[in-house]
Amino acid sequence: MYLNKVTLYGNLTRDPEVKALPGGTQVASFGLATNRTFKNKEGQKQEQSEFHNIVAFGKTAEVMGQYLKKGRPAYIEGRIQTRSWDKEGVKQYRTEIVVETFQFGPQAGAGASSSQTPAQEQEEQPPVFGGEAIQYPDEEINPEDIPF
Predict the structure, then answer these.
(1) How far apart are CA 71 and CA 106, in angstroms?
(2) Which tens digit of pLDDT belongs to each residue from 111-124?
(3) CA 137 to each of CA 35, 140, 148: distance values in angstroms, whole numbers, following the listed order
(4) Which residues does 82 contact at the CB level (< 8 Å), separation at least 6?
(5) In a domain, 1, yes or no
(6) How far is the C-alpha of 105 from the C-alpha of 11, rounded, in Å?
(7) pTM over 0.85
């Protein structure tokens, strides 16, 4: 069995750019920065940043393009893909993370200092997993209805 799985949590380096493929499928692309803190041989604290190219397709791309903005944190799960093409006789390569699922990170200023009510915040950014908004039931769940 082979495995190609990537898990990232970082901040967007630019707003998602949403385009449509000739077949009508939406494609969103943006950058994500992740940081790593470590101690060098001398024991000094060092920080290293990595920049990742992120690509999403379909409904996931539409939602990301609508709600994500530069500087906002996001949790991304996906797979690594490397594309290649010829440009003026020179082979070009680009390694990308293709999004399979994602979640929004916390919004800056969320909490006590937020001027929005929780209902307004939920309308503005619905919880997303796998590219589709979670649909909560309208009625209360009765514990007696649970079969175990």
Answers:
(1) 11
(2) 444 444 444 444 55
(3) 38, 7, 20
(4) 93, 94, 95, 96
(5) no
(6) 9
(7) no
